[in-house]
Design brief:
The chain has two helices and twelve strands. By secondary structure, it is mainly β. Strand 10 and strand 11 form a beta hairpin. The N terminus is likely disordered.
Length: 228
């Protein structure tokens, strides 16, 4: 498999803290999305375990919440319209999530040396949580839930697994499938499907869908959008 070439890395001061958490937001729109998520503040020197977490406040504002919070938004909104992007030409502007999701993805993608992909989901999905770390090569995890039936989609990218299993759920081999413009191995699990690219390597890419049929799952993974 030939990996795409990533752009030049430009770490920023707040990324020195090594971790950022995005939690509990619906898929916002330009007119009704939550206000901008507070960017991570400058933290301790590299090597610390500092973290940040944000969630929507009671009236659209943002207030601190415990790190690792995964409380979903009460109301899902359409993807593909996530509010202002970091720049006019941001490749992350189409990513599903909250108003600040493009900034979240751009910050991570610009600080790692492997291709980063985001979900572009249809109407009815909401963001559950998103987290990234830059240590040990960097990894990002983001998850979504479908309102109508609580089906879920999780994406893990980078150096997120420490063993040869690739952290892929157990199941039956079901061929191959697309992960954006990459191709991965498809596994049918007890509750859905998983798709892994470069299993057990660093970096690798993993999508896990629960409560989704094969056609729907592969449609979502095929639509994954490359940011860098």
């Amino acid at each position: 498999m030939r990996l795409r070439t990533a752009r030049t890395v430009w770490p920023s001061l707040f990324l020195a803290a090594g971790m950022f958490v995005l939690a509990g937001c619906g898929l916002g729109t330009a007119s009704n999305a939550p206000s901008d998520l507070t960017p991570a503040s400058v933290g301790p020197s590299v090597g610390s375990t500092a973290s940040n977490a944000v969630s929507p406040g009671p009236s659209g504002s943002t207030t601190p919440s415990p790190a690792g919070s995964t409380e979903p938004s009460a109301e899902a909104t359409p993807s593909g319209s996530v509010g202002p992007s970091p720049t006019a030409s941001s490749r992350a502007s189409v990513c599903s999530g909250a108003q600040d999701t493009p900034n979240f993805y751009e910050s991570f993608a610009s600080s790692v040396t492997f291709p980063v992909y985001c979900a572009v989901l249809p109407t009815g999905w909401s963001l559950v949580s998103g987290t990234y770390r830059l240590a040990n090569g960097g990894h990002i995890t983001i998850s979504f839930r479908r309102k109508v039936d609580s089906a879920t989609l999780e994406l893990d990218e980078g150096s997120f697994c420490t063993d040869d299993s690739g952290c892929v759920p157990g199941g039956i081999s079901a061929g191959t499938g697309p992960y954006g413009d990459l191709s991965g191995s498809l596994v049918q699990t007890s509750s859905g499907f998983a798709l892994v690219v470069a299993k057990g390597e660093k970096p690798s890419w993993l999508a896990i869908g629960n409560g989704l049929d094969q056609a729907t799952f592969l449609a979502l993974t095929a639509a994954l959008h490359a940011i860098n």
